[in-house]
Amino acid sequence: MATARTSSAVPVVVASVVCGWWATGLDPFSTRATWIVLAAGVVAMVVGRVTRRAGPPADIPPRATAPWSVLAGALMAWQLAAYFQHPRSEHPTLSSLTNTALDPRPIRALAFAAWMLAAGWLARR
User: Can you give the residue range of the structural domain that contains 12?
Assistant: First the structure.
C-alpha cells in the first residue's frame, strides 16, 4: 500500500520529467532557456518550501556547512569568470562542460528533472 508521501511524490516527479523534456527542447544557452531554467528552479524551491514538514529547522553547525560554502563559492566564481571571458572554447563554463556530457536529450531531461527535485528537496530541509 502506497503511503500519502509516496503517492504525492509521483505527480511531482512526473511533472519534473515533463518540464525537463520540454526545457531541453529549447535552444541551449538561449535567453528563453535560461529563464526557463531559473523559473523551474524557483518553482521547485517554492514547492519544496511549501510542502515542508512542520517543526523547527534542523540545527546544522556552521563548521559542517563551511566546506560546502567554499566549494559553492569557488564554482560560482569559476562560472562567472569563464562566462565573461571569450572565446568560450578557451574559457569553458561549467554549463558548457556539462552540455557535452549530457548530450542526448533523454539524459539531459532526466538531469534537469533531478536538478529540480534536488532543489525542492533542499528547500524542504
Answer: 4-54+103-124
